[in-house]
Amino acid sequence: MKVEAKSAIQSVAQPKTGADLLIETLISEGVDTVFGYPGGAVLPIYDAIYRAGNQLKHLLFRHEQGSIHAAEGYARITGKPGVVIATSGPGATNLITGIADAMMDSLPLVIFTGQVARGVIGTDAFQEADIIGITTPITKHNYQVRTIYDLPRIIKEAFHIASTGRPGPVVIDIPKDVSADPVYEDEFETNFHLPGYQPTTKPNPLQISKLADALSKARKPVILAGAGVLHGKAANELRELAEKHKFPVTTTLLGLGSFPGDHPFSLGMAGMHGTYSANMALYECDLLLNVGARFDDRLTGNLKHFAPHAKVAHIDIDPAEIGKNVPTTIPIVSDAKEALKELLKYDFNVTQHGDWLRKLKENKHQFPLWYNDYEQELCPQWLIETLHQASNGDAIITTDVGQHQMWAAQYYSFSSPNRWVTSGGLGTMGFGFPAAIGAQLAEPTSTVIAIVGDGGFQMTLQELSVLQERNLPVKVLIVNNGALGMVRQWQEKFYDKRYSESLLPVQPDFVKLAESYSIKGFRIDNQAELLRILPEVLAYEGPVVMDCRVVTNENVYPMIAPGKGLHEMIGVKP
Known about the structure:
Blueprint: E1 2-4, H1 18-28, E2 33-36, H2 43-52, E3 57-60, H3 64-78, E4 82-86, H4 90-93, H5 96-104, E5 109-115, H6 131-135, E6 141-144, H7 151-163, E7 169-175, H8 176-180, E8 187-189, H9 205-217, E9 221-225, H10 227-231, H11 235-245, E10 249-251, E11 266-269, H12 276-284, E12 287-291, H13 297-300, E13 311-316, E14 330-333, H14 336-343, H15 354-366, H16 380-390, E15 396-399, H17 403-411, E16 420-421, H18 432-442, E17 448-453, H19 454-460, H20 464-470, E18 475-480, H21 485-494, H22 510-516, E19 520-524, H23 527-539, E20 544-549
Parallel strand pairs: 2-3, 2-4, 4-5, 5-7, 6-7, 9-10, 9-12, 10-11, 12-13, 13-14, 15-16, 15-17, 17-18, 18-20, 19-20
Antiparallel strand pairs: 1-8
């Protein structure tokens, strides 16, 4: 296929450049929003953005990390690749954390990094960094453009790779002279064939038949739903399967929302801070069907004690994940939606696991999540529950990593897909706030709430400028316990309360900070203040920062200590 390089450029006084070709190709791919930060090596690209006018919306973040986390939030909500631009050297290396985060959590990104001119690559030129070498282990694929004629094809390949199969980040490194060179051709070849990249999306019928047979014979089946259900848009099929055959369902941290949290068959989240009912189901089951989860260590605990009595079936679009950590009896390489659709064609007897369902229901009733309620202080778990009620459980929630993340996962019950945006595999502090900006751009009419810690928020709070500049109605809720909460909790439990560098006695006045950006700010110290202020915050059409001063020493329970199995939870109360 050949594509005409039709100009999207407003000015005709100067020849078209490689940068113009880049912008035109982005527009042809349906891109309308770009996150970035300019610099010398990408000035030709930014000049082309200027000339393209309102055909492409660019958001200027105050740090490259903010821009890529925003792109992650955008990608997580829309399913489309988030597009990022940064300059060479320090601009590109400031993206590394976000690239690794997107790779771990399977988020589609296309990242354009500037590079020094081709003639001085390898000479340690000013702001030169080997971005291809640096990002090779943390990208799905990467390119360095060596000729302008390859640029349109490479961009189209990158979007294809980023968004198909198991999604992930793709980096395109562009030397400055490539983006500045004039373009004399009118058409460019953009057909591509990638023989080494042909993701399997349809399941093997024999394996589906084996799975159906195993499910029909199981007396203690359980489904584990991961982010692959969300990426594959398979939430409806998962629910239909569970309801049709009365299968209990638990989710991973990143799989929250793939199955309604308030559904009678829902066991809640599994793993280190999962529910008693979910973890005991995984420990005691005789058949475990994993749909789109990685079997990472925070989910499994000690592998010796993970599903020790179970036959394991694993549906995943990435064959490398099947059998990597947990021996798998029935491997199914497939898109989650396609596999579940085929499985739904089978009718089989499921009457033999009634006792199992009754036991799981009893576990949920006898060992629910619990917390200490402090009437005169602000309890973090109560805070999240109250937020859920006030927002009707329909807000998009983004978080950093730590205690507040786990409390949000436990107490903000998600009933529909794509309302939960968090950093799972990499566990990135500073992620939650800029990710909320990207999520708000993805769904302008939705309520977006960034639940952040006082530590993580201080890593990317400069992006308040973007909220004010664009008048984005993101609500920032700081769970402020004056500490790096999860670090403090581990030091309390496993380091004999030696709180080495985990307490934050000196902090900014977050209300004054918000007001310095012309953003509304509130400090909330107790339950009565939250109940009075929260409705006003949610009804307000602009951005808000809430500094919620919660109980300092509150911990996240249940908890599985390092090296322990799912059945060895601490902090469980009847």
